[in-house]
Design goal:
heterodimer; A: 383 residues; alpha+beta; 10-stranded mixed beta sheet; 6-stranded mixed beta sheet; 8 helices; globular; B: 137 residues; 3-stranded antiparallel beta sheet; 4 helices; elongated
Chain lengths: 383, 137
């Protein structure tokens, strides 16, 4: 048994043993969970994929004369202004009013809220346009100027739902034509199946009962650091679990937050999904303390241990029927094809293993170099 | 290959195949409303025969572009998710099973354009083959 305080002491002394999730699988395979728990202090996990429920809470600073924004746009993308005078919330999926969306066939959604966030992180100038209705204290009615991330008074990434614990595999089984979904283009007759999880590298699959992840857990977020602020929207820890304790469908989610000014464009990318919309791909890493033998066992999870539900996005998903066609494991999904009702179906990954591995390695470096210590949960998430 | 309106009606491809002993495997062909013809084809034969066939086609007004012109894969924008590789019908885009990095072999590309739609990060852009083609991009 170890405590997070003891592990932090070792991190400060430069003695902590920190390994990536990939390394941990091999260590536990070789040495067993008990010896691994004694030797390893922290396992770094990671994931990088589109996470639509993301956004930016920003304060632009005041103009003179002052304005109280009633409507505002960043590079033409509308931001929510129903807050204090110059506070705005820019959602990742927000689109310019003039974007044709799907009016003339599947739209391309080349620029939305996620792209504005990426542009800011890249240090690019962004055009701010705002309207106010005019008050005695905020007389200005219109404002147009450029700004940059440095010029913003504050910029906080505030994501209501990220880091899904497992996720559905999408197919188009009964549709007559290709369908355009947030899981990409799906061909009729279940000709392809798309999936979106980092599998054995994914944070919440390495701590499936959220023993070490809760409100206050410090994380890698978008290349900088952030914190878990609570359960994500649609957090659903009651999903059926397999013999290893892993949920066999989308289950727990996290709400997270962090300072955008310390983030990096490699791990925050605007996303354009044909026929669906704009979004933001977010890189998240969570350090998992190996408190005991059980946590060593949990962090040894392999792709073959994790099952995901296959869902028909032509009828069952849009109709909300809750029907599941079957389950497949991530080792099969990663192999390039799965078997569905006796047929071979090509798989299409949407979550980047390479980026997840880079997050695991980057987070390991942050901890080993004592740029980050662990912060345990101050409150558990609903389990 | 791009055929200007005045060349569309001529049997240039079959003449090239016969005259220079080159096999021409046509993967796709279409004529736009402005009567510009476009053809995607694999030429097989001796190096000298292929060069002579290409010279013959060019002399007939045909714009011949090598496969390198089909796509641009931007390594700076690619996140290596593999969505392109999972949908590419020929394996031109593939994912290395060890490094999980996406690679592109343009010699296998048939310029179908599926990857242009599959990529959500702007990392696959149309090359000269697609230039001026309204529908694909």
């Amino acid at each position: 048994m170890k405590t997070i305080e003891e592990i932090n002491g070792r991190i400060r002394e430069g003695r902590a043993v920190v390994v990536t999730a990939s390394e941990m699988k091999l260590i536990v395979e070789r040495e067993g969970p008990r010896a691994s728990a004694e030797r390893v202090d922290v396992v770094t996990t990671g994931t990088f994929a589109p996470m639509c429920s993301s956004g930016l809470l920003l304060n632009t600073g005041h103009s003179s004369p002052r304005i109280r924004y009633s409507r505002a746009w960043l590079n033409g993308v509308p931001a929510y202004a129903g807050l204090a005078a110059v506070d705005l919330f820019l959602g990742a999926t927000a689109l310019p009013e003039e974007d044709p969306r799907n009016a003339a066939g599947p739209g391309r959604f080349r620029y939305g809220g996620g792209h504005v966030i990426e542009d800011l992180v890249r240090g690019r100038e962004v055009r701010l346009r705002a309207e106010g209705y005019g008050t005695d204290c905020y007389p200005l009615r219109e404002l147009v100027r450029t700004t940059t991330l440095d010029g913003l008074r504050s910029a906080t990434l505030l994501n209501p739902r990220n880091c899904y614990q497992n996720y559905a595999v999408a197919v188009n089984l009964r549709g007559a034509r290709p369908i355009h979904t947030y899981m990409g283009t799906l061909m009729p007759g279940a000709a392809n199946a798309s999936f979106c999880s980092a599998g054995e590298l994914s944070p919440l699959l390495n701590d499936p009962f959220l023993r070490t992840i809760g409100v206050g857990t410090r994380i890698f977020l978008g290349g900088g650091t952030g914190v878990v602020i609570g359960a994500g929207t649609q957090h659903s820890p009651g999903v059926e679990r397999n013999a290893r304790g892993l949920p066999i469908g989308g289950a727990a989610t996290l709400a997270v937050s962090g300072d955008l000014k310390r983030m990096a464009p490699e791990f925050l990318r605007g996303v354009s999904v044909t026929g669906y919309g704009a979004s933001l791909a977010v890189g998240i890493g969570i350090p998992i303390p190996v408190l005991d033998e059980e946590m060593a066992f949990r962090t040894a999870v392999r792709d073959v241990d994790i099952q995901a539900p296959v869902v028909d996005y032509s009828e069952d998903y849009p109709g909300g029927t809750g029907e599941v066609l079957g389950h497949v494991d991530y080792a099969a999904l990663r192999s390039g094809s799965i078997t569905l009702a006796g047929r071979t179906v090509r798989t299409v990954p949407l979550s980047s293993v390479r980026a997840a591995a880079r997050i695991c390695a980057g987070l390991r470096r942050m901890i080993v170099e004592d740029r980050m210590t662990l912060a345990g949960p101050v409150e558990p998430l609903p389990g | 290959m791009e055929f200007p309106p005045e060349s569309v009606g001529k049997p240039l491809v079959s003449r090239a195949a016969r005259s220079f002993d080159v096999e021409i495997n046509i993967l796709r062909a279409e004529i736009s409303p402005s009567e510009v013809g476009r053809m995607l084809a694999v030429l097989e034969g001796s190096q000298a025969g292929i060069e002579a066939a290409v010279d013959f086609l060019r002399a007939g007004g045909v714009r011949v572009l090598p496969p390198e012109g089909s796509l641009v894969h931007d390594g700076d924008l690619c996140v290596h998710c593999g969505a392109c590789a999972g949908q590419c019908p020929t394996g031109a885009f593939s994912m290395d099973p060890e490094s999980f990095e996406v690679g592109l072999d343009l010699s296998a590309c048939i310029a179908c354009g599926i990857c242009l739609e599959a990529c959500s990060y702007g990392a696959v852009r149309p090359g000269a083959v697609f230039a001026g083609k309204g529908g694909a991009e």
